[in-house]
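Checklist before submission:
- one chain only
- standard amino acids only
- sequence pasted in full

Submission:
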Amino acid sequence: MIFDKFFYFKYEKKYFKDKVSKFKRERMFAFLTFICYT
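Returned file contents:
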C-alpha cells in the first residue's frame, strides 16, 4: 500500500511536469507565430 502510494506520487509528478512542459512549448509556439504575423 505504501509502495503503491509512492509509485502513484512519482507518476503524478512526472505527468504534471510533462503537462507543464507541453503548455510552455505551446505558449512559446503561439508567441513566435504571433511575432511572425505582426
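Reviewer check: The CA atoms of residues 6 and 12 lie 10 Å apart.
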